[in-house]
Amino acid sequence: MRHFAFLGLAFALAAPANAQTVPSPADTARAERVLARAPVIDGHNDLAWEIGHYQGGSVAVARKGGADLPRPLQTDLARMKAGHVGGQFWSVWIPADVTGPKAVELTLEQIDVVRRLVAGNPDALALATTAADVRRIMASGRTASLIGVEGGHQIDGRLSVLRQYRALGVGYMTLTHSRSLPWADSSTDEAVAGGLSPFGKRVVAEMNRIGMLVDVSHVADSTMRAALAASKAPVIASHSSARALAPVPRNIPDDLLAAIGANGGIVMVNFYPAFLSGAWKQWDVARTAYAKSLAVPGDVYGPRAAAPLVEWDRAHPMPRVTVATVADHIEHVAKIAGHDHVGLGGDFDGIDNTAPEGMNGVDGYPKVIAELARRGWSDGDLAKLTDGNILRVMERAETVAASMADLPADDATDRSAK
Question: Would you tell me which of 29, 31, 387, 409 could form a disulfide with 41, CB atoms 3.0–4.6 Å apart?
Answer without folding.
Answer: 387
